[in-house]
Write a structure and sequence with these properties.
Helices cover 89% and strands 0% of the residues. With 120 residues, the chain is an all-alpha fold.
Length: 120
Protein backbone atom coordinates (compact mmCIF):
# COMPACT_ATOMS: atom_id res chain seq x y z
CA UNK A 1 0.00 0.00 0.00
CA UNK A 2 1.27 3.45 -0.87
CA UNK A 3 2.43 5.59 2.07
CA UNK A 4 -0.09 8.31 1.17
CA UNK A 5 -2.89 5.77 1.61
CA UNK A 6 -1.52 4.78 4.99
CA UNK A 7 -1.23 8.39 6.04
CA UNK A 8 -4.74 9.20 4.80
CA UNK A 9 -6.18 6.17 6.58
CA UNK A 10 -4.46 7.13 9.85
CA UNK A 11 -5.68 10.70 9.52
CA UNK A 12 -9.19 9.44 8.81
CA UNK A 13 -9.14 7.36 12.00
CA UNK A 14 -7.81 10.31 14.01
CA UNK A 15 -10.52 12.53 12.52
CA UNK A 16 -13.22 10.10 13.60
CA UNK A 17 -11.82 10.02 17.14
CA UNK A 18 -11.56 13.82 17.25
CA UNK A 19 -15.16 14.19 16.07
CA UNK A 20 -16.32 11.83 18.81
CA UNK A 21 -14.41 13.87 21.40
CA UNK A 22 -16.02 17.05 20.11
CA UNK A 23 -19.48 15.48 20.25
CA UNK A 24 -18.99 14.32 23.85
CA UNK A 25 -17.64 17.71 24.89
CA UNK A 26 -20.60 19.40 23.21
CA UNK A 27 -23.01 17.27 25.23
CA UNK A 28 -21.11 18.01 28.44
CA UNK A 29 -21.16 21.73 27.65
CA UNK A 30 -24.94 21.69 27.21
CA UNK A 31 -25.28 20.13 30.67
CA UNK A 32 -22.78 22.58 32.18
CA UNK A 33 -24.71 25.52 30.74
CA UNK A 34 -27.96 24.14 32.16
CA UNK A 35 -26.34 23.62 35.57
CA UNK A 36 -25.05 27.19 35.42
CA UNK A 37 -28.53 28.57 34.69
CA UNK A 38 -29.96 26.57 37.61
CA UNK A 39 -27.23 27.85 39.95
CA UNK A 40 -27.93 31.40 38.82
CA UNK A 41 -31.64 31.00 39.46
CA UNK A 42 -30.99 29.54 42.93
CA UNK A 43 -28.62 32.36 43.85
CA UNK A 44 -31.09 34.96 42.63
CA UNK A 45 -33.96 33.31 44.46
CA UNK A 46 -31.98 33.24 47.71
CA UNK A 47 -31.29 36.98 47.48
CA UNK A 48 -34.92 37.75 46.66
CA UNK A 49 -36.16 35.66 49.60
CA UNK A 50 -33.67 37.27 51.94
CA UNK A 51 -34.90 40.71 50.87
CA UNK A 52 -38.54 39.71 51.32
CA UNK A 53 -39.51 39.79 47.66
CA UNK A 54 -38.50 41.43 44.43
CA UNK A 55 -40.07 44.79 45.23
CA UNK A 56 -38.28 44.86 48.58
CA UNK A 57 -34.98 44.12 46.85
CA UNK A 58 -35.00 47.31 44.79
CA UNK A 59 -37.57 49.75 43.42
CA UNK A 60 -36.84 49.30 39.69
CA UNK A 61 -36.17 46.33 37.45
CA UNK A 62 -32.79 47.78 36.48
CA UNK A 63 -31.76 48.12 40.14
CA UNK A 64 -32.91 44.56 40.86
CA UNK A 65 -30.97 43.26 37.86
CA UNK A 66 -27.77 44.95 39.09
CA UNK A 67 -28.21 43.61 42.62
CA UNK A 68 -28.90 40.10 41.35
CA UNK A 69 -25.89 40.20 39.01
CA UNK A 70 -23.60 41.11 41.89
CA UNK A 71 -25.20 38.49 44.14
CA UNK A 72 -24.84 35.75 41.55
CA UNK A 73 -21.23 36.75 40.90
CA UNK A 74 -20.52 36.41 44.63
CA UNK A 75 -22.11 32.96 44.88
CA UNK A 76 -19.36 30.32 45.28
CA UNK A 77 -21.42 27.49 43.77
CA UNK A 78 -22.14 29.59 40.71
CA UNK A 79 -18.45 30.47 40.35
CA UNK A 80 -17.42 26.81 40.44
CA UNK A 81 -19.95 25.95 37.74
CA UNK A 82 -18.97 29.01 35.70
CA UNK A 83 -15.32 27.93 35.71
CA UNK A 84 -16.33 24.40 34.69
CA UNK A 85 -18.47 25.76 31.86
CA UNK A 86 -15.64 27.98 30.64
CA UNK A 87 -13.15 25.12 30.75
CA UNK A 88 -15.49 22.87 28.78
CA UNK A 89 -16.11 25.62 26.27
CA UNK A 90 -12.37 25.99 25.74
CA UNK A 91 -11.88 22.23 25.43
CA UNK A 92 -14.68 22.06 22.85
CA UNK A 93 -13.13 24.88 20.83
CA UNK A 94 -9.77 23.08 20.92
CA UNK A 95 -11.46 19.85 19.80
CA UNK A 96 -13.13 21.68 16.90
CA UNK A 97 -9.77 23.11 15.87
CA UNK A 98 -8.30 19.60 15.96
CA UNK A 99 -11.15 18.33 13.76
CA UNK A 100 -10.55 21.14 11.26
CA UNK A 101 -6.81 20.45 11.24
CA UNK A 102 -7.32 16.73 10.62
CA UNK A 103 -9.86 17.46 7.89
CA UNK A 104 -7.27 19.71 6.22
CA UNK A 105 -4.64 16.97 6.55
CA UNK A 106 -6.99 14.45 4.95
CA UNK A 107 -7.76 16.85 2.11
CA UNK A 108 -4.02 17.32 1.53
CA UNK A 109 -3.52 13.57 1.36
CA UNK A 110 -6.39 13.21 -1.12
CA UNK A 111 -4.95 16.03 -3.24
CA UNK A 112 -1.55 14.33 -3.17
CA UNK A 113 -3.11 11.04 -4.28
CA UNK A 114 -4.84 12.77 -7.20
CA UNK A 115 -1.60 14.55 -8.14
CA UNK A 116 0.26 11.24 -8.15
CA UNK A 117 -2.55 9.67 -10.24
CA UNK A 118 -3.29 7.22 -7.47
CA UNK A 119 -6.84 5.84 -7.30
CA UNK A 120 -8.76 7.71 -4.61
Amino acid sequence: MHSIYTSANNTHNQLKAARLVAAHLSAKLVKAEYDLRVAQAKAERAVIRKAGGERSLAPTAEDRARILTVAVDADPDYQVLLQAQRALSLRLEEARIEVAYLRDQLNLALTAMKADDLPV
